[in-house]
Amino acid sequence: MTNIRKTYLLWMKKVLDQTLQEIFITHGNKYFMWQNKDQEASDLDKDLREQTIKLERAQKQLHKTMREIKGTRQSQPIPFYLKDVMTRELQEQNQSALQQLAEFVAHHIEAGPVVTRYLEEKGLVLPLSRSPGGSLTRVLSRHTPSSTRLSLPGPGIKFVILTD
């Protein structure tokens, strides 16, 4: 066998070995990515099951409450003090929901105009909330999509004013 042929065969073996090594590395990377995607899918399935359970629980509670409401209409009138307690509980729930909306708007400023418009249609106003920087924020609207954010440096009150 000639020297050139030996050199060529050694070179081909080296190239094939490198190619094979690259294939193994690529296969390993693909396998690792597949495992990660499989884990993500498992996590999402778990989250979906948890959310489904929560949704079913909320629907059961809603149906139970609806049955109670229908039952109270046919029975005796509710005493004033119970109406007062129920009204206060509903007001606390509404205030909590408005506070959560205010915090959502503080973190996602782009949602502010839409949320504010819907609330204004119902005659509601968002309470002050803490923005990510720790300052107080309130969204004000004049029924238009453009907005201006006014704020003072440091902890203070920031206003998002939607203007014409």
Automatic annotation (TrEMBL):
Signal peptide: none
Sections of the chain in a coiled coil: 41-75
Domain of life from the UniProt record: Eukaryota
Protein name: Coiled-coil domain-containing protein 39
Entry's Gene Ontology cellular component terms: axoneme; extracellular region
Lyase keyword on record: no
Keywords noted in UniProt: Coiled coil
Family of this protein: Belongs to the CCDC39 family.
Task of the protein: Required for assembly of dynein regulatory complex (DRC) and inner dynein arm (IDA) complexes, which are responsible for ciliary beat regulation, thereby playing a central role in motility in cilia and flagella. Probably acts together with CCDC40 to form a molecular ruler that determines the 96 nanometer (nm) repeat length and arrangements of components in cilia and flagella. Not required for outer dynein arm complexes assembly.
GO biological process: cilium-dependent cell motility; epithelial cilium movement involved in determination of left/right asymmetry; inner dynein arm assembly
Species this chain originates from: Zootermopsis nevadensis
